[in-house]
Amino acid sequence: MAKRRLNKHQVRRIQRQQQSRTASTVTDSKADSTDHSRQLGPEQTGLVVCHFGQQLEIEALTGEHLGERFRCYQRSNLPPLVTGDHVIWQADDENSGVVVAQLDRKSLISRPNSRGTLRPVAANIDTVVVVIAPEPEPFANLIDRYLVTIENLSLEAIILLNKADLLDHPAHTGQDSEIATLLARYESIGYQTLTTSTKTEDGVSALRETLSERTMVFVGQSGVGKSSVINALRDMENSEEAEYADVGELSVGLAKGTHTTTATRLYHMPGSGDLIDSPGIREFGLDHVEATDLIHGFREFRPYLGYCRFRDCKHVNEPGCAILNAVAEGAINAERLHSYQLILQSQGAR
After folding, report:
1. What is the residue-averaged pLDDT of the chain?
2. Where is the composition biased (Basic residues) (predicted)?
C-alpha cells in the first residue's frame, strides 16, 4: 500500500503541535530541574502578586522571608496560576524559588480572550468595583452587564462614579441629574455607590476606608480613570515605590478611553486592603453566563422568579407574568427589565 501523503495544512498543524510540545517540555524542565540543581528551603505559604510569562512573582506570607518577593517557576503538574492565588512555595539559594502547590480558591474571575475562550484573570476577590465617569458617557446596560457577571460569581459589587469634577464643566450641564438618577436606581436595589475625583481628591479617603480588609478588582470602560484612582489610593505622591499604574488619555472624537494597564498586579494599599489591577475592557463578556442564569444576575427579580403563570415565561408581554406585574406596581424599575431583555437578545437567546 502506498504511503499516505500529508497536505500542506496537515504538515503545518503537526509542526505547530511539535513546537508546542517542545516549548512545554523546556518550561517544565526549567521548573522541575530547579529541585535538583538548587538547594530549596522549607515549604511556606505565598501570594501571587504578578505573572510574568512563565514566571510568577511570589510574596512570602510566612517564614523568614515574610514580606519579601521572589521570581518563581511553578511545578509542571500545577494548573495555571493567576494574581491573587495563594500557594505553597520553596525558596532556593539564588533569590528565586519554585511553587509546589496551589491552595484552594474562594473565587475566580475570568474573561474571554480574542478567541472567545475564558482566561482566568484574578483569584480570591471579595468585591468588584464597577467604575463609571461622566466621560466616556455611562450606559446602564453596560453597568448591568458587569453586575450580572458579578452576581453570578457571588461577589459584592460597588459602583464608583469617578471624574466627578467634570460635572461642573459647562460641557456636562444637566448630566449631573442624569447620573444622580442612574446611581439612585442602583442604590434602591441595594448596591453601594461612591463618588471620587482624583483631580480634587474628593472621595478618595472614603473609598480607601471602604476597601479596608478587602481584596478588590476594578472593572469598567477604558478611560474612566481606573488607573488614576489606583494611584490615588496607593498615595503614590508620598510613596517611595516607583511603580505607577499607567494612565492613558481619553481618545478624541469617539470619547472612548485608551487601554493602559497591561499586567494584572496585586497592590497593598496604605491604610486599606488589597487591590488587583486588571486590564481595562470596553465591554464585559457574558458569553460564559448561561441564558438561564442571566435573570438571576438582576437581584431584584429573584423574589418573583417561579411565580409566573407560564414556566417558559420570557417576561415580555405574557399574561400572569410576575416580573411584569412587579414593574407595573413599581417594585422593579422598567429600565432594568428593558436592560435584561437587551442582554438576552444580544446573546441570541430569544
Report:
1. 81
2. 1-15
State in words which class domain 29-102 has: mainly beta
Instruction: Compute the 3-state secondary structure of the chain and give helix, strand, coil in percent, each to the nearest 5.
Output: 35, 20, 45
Q: Which residues of the chain does CATH 3.40.50.300 include?
A: 108-277
pTM: 0.77
Residue 75 has pLDDT above 50, yes or no: yes
**Fold category of 108-277 in CATH:** Rossmann fold (3.40.50)
Phi-psi group of 53: left, alpha or beta (phi > 0 → left; psi -120 to 50 → alpha; rest → beta): left
Q: Residue 104 has what pLDDT?
A: 96
pLDDT at 248 over 50: no
321 is annotated as contributing to ligand binding = yes
Identify the residue whose cell numbers are 438561564. 292
The CATH class of 291-346 is mainly alpha
Percent of the residues in the chain that have a pLDDT greater than 90, as a whole number? 54
8 is in an annotated binding site: no
